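Translate sequence into structure tokens.
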Amino acid sequence: MLYLDIPLLSLLIWTPLIGGVLLLFIDQKNDQLIKISGFTISTVTLFISIVLLINFDTSQYLLQFNEKHIWIYNLDINYHLAVDGFSLLFILLTTTVTSLIILFNFSESRQQNNKYIALFLILEGLLLGVFCAFDSILFYIFFEAMLIPLFLIIGIWGGPNRVYATIKFFIYTLLGSVLMLVALLYLSFKANSFYILDYYNLVLSLDTQILIFLAFLIAFGIKVPMWPVHTWLPDAHVEAPSSGSVILAAVLLKVGGYGMIRFLLPITPDAGFYLNNFLIPLSLVAIIYISFVAIAQQDMKKLIAYSSIAHMGFVTLGIFLVFNTIGQAQDIQNISHIGLQGAIMQMLSHGLISAGLFICIGIIYSRTKSRMIDDQSGIGQVMPVFSALMMFFLLANSGLPGTSGFVGEFMVLIAAIKNNIMYAVLASTTLVLAASYSLWLGKRVLFGEVNNDNVGSMKILRFDEFWPLLILAILVILIGIKPDLLLNISEESSMNMIKIITNKY
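Result follows.
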């Protein structure tokens, strides 16, 4: 295999990290060179992730592409990178979205553009590190460090209330991170190792599991974000530049779901089973209540931000339903496997759809200088191609069959039906609610008469606006028609995770 002699994972992580740092040294007046260099670096990173995909063995759940080097000898902390089916999917999402973000910025001119693109590349490298790290300290460092570039992106290039949004974002995430660090240190002392998979073999009392579970739940729940620790996200989205909103919604929120799968499920299953009557209602509140909040919004960005919280509620529902596997028959275990796969599919789908929607809103804002729904009307008359693409993403956001938005929600609903019919009834309301706010937004913004001079003078899509939207739309359709392309990658890892949980009972 191609990867045997090449440290592909290190190459994957350090290419955007080093490339981003080098970009800082290019004179900001040389704007074209900055953009070409940034796009080249992100494209090379995407190519490396595709090489990983080609050489990945989907028939096994074991870690692949292992790289392990002693980092801090006295403490037995290692530079340990590897991937499984879960990691690879999020790596592909990260590299794809980042490349499209940098392409989307190709024609834009802004102050300190070298620093702006460099921060996105550095953020990409740190995110990839999170998904590849299997030493808990290394994971924590990547997990914490990824907040810095996003903090700077929002804080420097954000809207008028960017300081408030960034401080709120920082405080929320810092609180969760401190608790996670304490939990990781406790587990490492118990296991006498910082290797994450060694934590899976620990036998912990229920009281200990509950404390560790709550620490991880707060840390990753803030990232998702779960209700009621979600309030930082709408503020961050509103103040962030368009590209910042894209990376935030498409990838950063998925770190929370990934962390839950990697840590909560295998390490603290008894606590999850014990607390499930509390956890599942939290997901249902996010799905139903936040959907109503989305309907009430007048700012397009806020509407899609609340929509993201509601859709991520499906993710946590699929993950938490796995805890009901404990002590159950084989058929329930199989259903839980469907729910877990559905949660993963929902994360990937939401990453693509939300990226498309935030790019669309960014295009509208760049022309009308307003995100208010009331300020837009009749865009379909002046930009028909753009309107068709935006309407497509809105339909996909509402779970239209044939799009990726339908697959994940359908799989989670199947798991919910088999566990508790009431869970399924309540969760299925999203099919109506998501359609309500998505179609309402499309009707108000795209249809009707042109009532704004800025709308009337809107120009057709540039190539760097059209191609990211088209590529995202193709991926949404492709995954919607052929979901096995992704589900097969994580199939064995999901089955193994269910086995780990059931064997601990």
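Note: The two ends are 39 Å apart (CA to CA).
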